[in-house]
Write a structure and sequence with these properties.
Shape of chain A: elongated
Strand content of chain A: 15-25%
Helix content of chain B: 25-40%
Order of helices and strands of chain A: HHHEHEEHEHEHEHEEEE
Largest sheet of chain B: 6 strands, antiparallel, barrel
Number of strands of chain B: 21
Shape of chain B: elongated
Strand order of the largest sheet of chain B: 16-17-18-19-20-21
Structural class of chain B: alpha+beta
Helix content of chain A: 25-40%
Number of helices of chain B: 16
Largest sheet of chain A: 8 strands, mixed
Strand content of chain B: 25-35%
Number of strands of chain A: 10
Distance between the termini of chain A: 57 Å
Strand order of the largest sheet of chain A: 5-4-6-7-3-8-9-10
Radius of gyration of chain B: 36 Å
Distance between the termini of chain B: 75 Å
Structural class of chain A: alpha/beta
Number of helices of chain A: 8
Oligomer: heterodimer
Amino acid sequence: MAQPSRALGAWRGLPNQEGELAPLLKDLRRIQALITPAELEHRAPSPVPTGLDALDRLLGGGLPEGRIVRLGAAKGTFASALGLRMLSECTVSGKNAALIDRADAFDPRGAAEAGAELERLLWCRPATDRAAIRAADALLASAAFPLVILDLGREERGRGRREEPISSGAWQRLARGAEAARACLIVVGGEVAAGVSAATLSAVQSRARFRGQGPGRIFEGLELTVSLERNRLGLPPGEIRLSFQAPSHFGGDP
Amino acid sequence: MRRIGCLFVPDLPLQALVRGEPELMGAPLAVASGEGARARIDCVSVQARTQGVRPGLPVSDALVLAPKLIVRWVPAALIEATRAAALDAAASVSPRVEELAPGVALLDAKGLQQLHGDDRGVAAALIAAASRLGLDASASVASGKALARIAAMGSDGIEVIPKGGERAFLAPLSLAQLGASPKLLETLSRWGIATAGALATLPADGIGSRLGAEGVALHRLACGSDPAPLIPRSPPERFEEVVELDYELAAIEGLLFVLRPALERLVERVSCYALSCRALELRLLLEPVGEAILPVELAAPTREVSTLLSLCRSAIERRPPGAAVRGVRIIAIPAAARHEQLRLFGRPTVAPEKLATALARVAAIVGDDRLGRPSLPDSHLRESFTLSRFDPPPPPDELSFSAEPTRATCISNRDVTKGESLFSADVTEGDRSARAGVASLRLFRPPLPAQVQHGPAGPQSLRAGAVTGWVVSCAGPWRLDVGWHEEPVCRDAFDVELSDGAVYRLLRDLRTGQWSVVGRYD
């Protein structure tokens, strides 16, 4: 760590450079505008496995800790299944997870069927986008939830009165909160401000699988092709195919 | 040898006034009682005293002496809250506290040296605790209750009577300061005894026969003996703060503005016992008469004022009082803040209080009934669930006795910089089946009423709000017939793929024949 001293030594025209620059450096470090290479390395997101090997390979090991990942949620893209899988993996490993369900579409029985430990899941059902963002901010600030899923998906029913779009400032605040808490914030649906999300996973192709014919026909599940597009993690773009089983019809075991 | 501390808060009504309105500090103040021409001054501040105002003066006379004098009538509830605050301040220093009189709190100071140092440190801690609650107090430490009280009431700051120095401390004091009754004072004055030192020189043998039990007690005290035991009180089960307004408030913003300092005072008091607020109750005194009682339930105990204020706001907005407010009483029910022991092998858990505060804050944002842990009742109905309090178990231990590396380790150990087929598009069939997840069913709450064209092979087309299309594939029906003894449910379920590729779950109620879309696979 001799570099800062050498850099200061280059300021030959100033008397007592270190003494005068020290408060400035201190201020810059306080607002995290100046970081050392060691700190930068420490800040690099460490991956958290999702439980889907193919997806982990695509993401360079897993979800980036302390970053925002957006899941595309256009109609029929199965983004919720991906979020549910990540949620299950997180809770099974003994960590707490929070689901901010703006769409109020969460199926707890399906989550239990997918293996999620509901005891470690906080389900929050805000009535507005604004409340959802504020709740996400509060949960990230607590640093109690390594995984926060913010589901802003719109359902087919529409939402009545149109809400104002979420400001880029709010997204920036969430990004800072996720980084400070070293939590992964997954945004399902909605529009994330440009430059905020570290990666976007979107479904490029999907297919439903049925088996049999006639009245005894069975819905087996969904096939999904997920692509990782341009991202801020330094990962090459790629595609994977994922398969999801259909949940049971009768609620599963409580 | 025991040590007793004493916290003395003088002029309780005046301090109650300043505690409620800190901006009055430094002004010439007087607290009055009575009405009309019979109104008298009870307490005066130092600034008012310098202008000649004394307790007992009629208010009109006091205003003549000091035209800028601020005269207030302090409600009894506010004085009561201040009296309780004095006890709370003492309780923050020692758990064994006795109230000798309003504004006089005694505490067991034995064994506090490890926390606060010597006796002077204990007394300083008492004054600091009182100051945090907005009280100006004096404190003392002595070997007995009466000694500590006399020392605190005769001091402006800290007074410590050292062990063995009791008699010397009391010697110059008058007998009235020791608490002698007027009748006893008259008798002793006839004997020519005016100070404690003179009384202590008398032989103890004849005191009882001449002066009775009171004389014996006074003689013992003058000799420095004060054996009365401390009788500690129980910790309070509720805390109360009061806001009395000189004007009516109709807007919620104004009400919250006056609620915040009261909540801050309340939280400070609760913190004295290392407790948190488990529940709040707002009692709004309405104009002209009446009271609105608003319970404020907290998702978890907290001490964060902004969270409590947000919850109060949501409670008021949910049940507006319907009239202007002229006063507020806030009652807090305390609960112990949870503490968790650090674990040897497990991941460090979140501080329970921190988690509780976050939950309370989110509950204030989204509503108490829309936050919690999902619980599944024993039912076959997929849409049935309840929300329980979020109280996660501790994470499992991370100490692994297996030599086999975990899957996560395998992934992290691979060199991603060399591109070792990490980004290959396909996964094998075996891998896929091993890692298959469960598709999520995004429920519609409530279900969408649907119009369905039904043929012999099942639904053929669907129209439900924005969901519309031809059915490409259909699975089902799956019949569910439950709840015949309570709320009978009898329905057929279908999984239908529409022409746009989306897959929905469709229900037909066999009792009414109505169709509905309950969710979309996503």
